[in-house]
Amino acid sequence: MWFVLACTQCSCTRDRGSPPPAESNSGNSVAAFLNHAERQAETDEQRREIQRALRDMLEKSPAELRRMRYADYTGEADKWSISQMLQHYFVPNPPAALDEQRLFQEVRAPAARAAIRRQLDEVGGALQ
């Protein structure tokens, strides 16, 4: 009897006043990759390069973004594509693959742009 009462109470509370579910990735691979991802950068130089890449994702067309190259973790210029950059500096949670083809198709979607902005804000706050 107590179990039924407890389950009923939980159900009512959840339906009425619970916060909305976590943001939806809407099937967007960029958002799935970046939402809740842990950024792994050791230096401000790396953080600035990540910042540049994230800004490029917001500002450049997919065709322009495809041509961009970024410094690797040692600082050697023009080594990584945008997808390599993301895969080297971000660990998605939950684990998610980043398909390069889908990245360029989905980078302009609202869900992707929101996740990019969130990461951009966080990396900006980490710069010293």
Detailed description of the structure:
The protein is mostly helical and 128 residues long. It has one domain. The chain is built from seven helices and two strands; from the N terminus they run H-H-E-H-H-H-E-H-H. It has a two-stranded antiparallel ribbon. Helix 3 packs antiparallel against helix 7.
Radius of gyration from the alpha-carbon trace, in angstroms: 19 Å
Given as residue ranges, the uncertain stretches (5+ residues, pLDDT < 50) are 1-24
Major sheet attributes: 2 strands, antiparallel
Average pLDDT, rounded to a whole number, is 83
- Quickly count the domains: 1
Write the layout of secondary structure elements.
Layout: H1 2-17, H2 29-34, E1 38-39, H3 44-59, H4 62-67, H5 82-89, E2 90-91, H6 100-106, H7 110-126
Give keywords.
128 residues, mainly alpha, 7 helices, 59% helix, disordered N terminus
Q: What is this structure, in a nutshell?
A:
With 128 residues, the protein is mainly α.
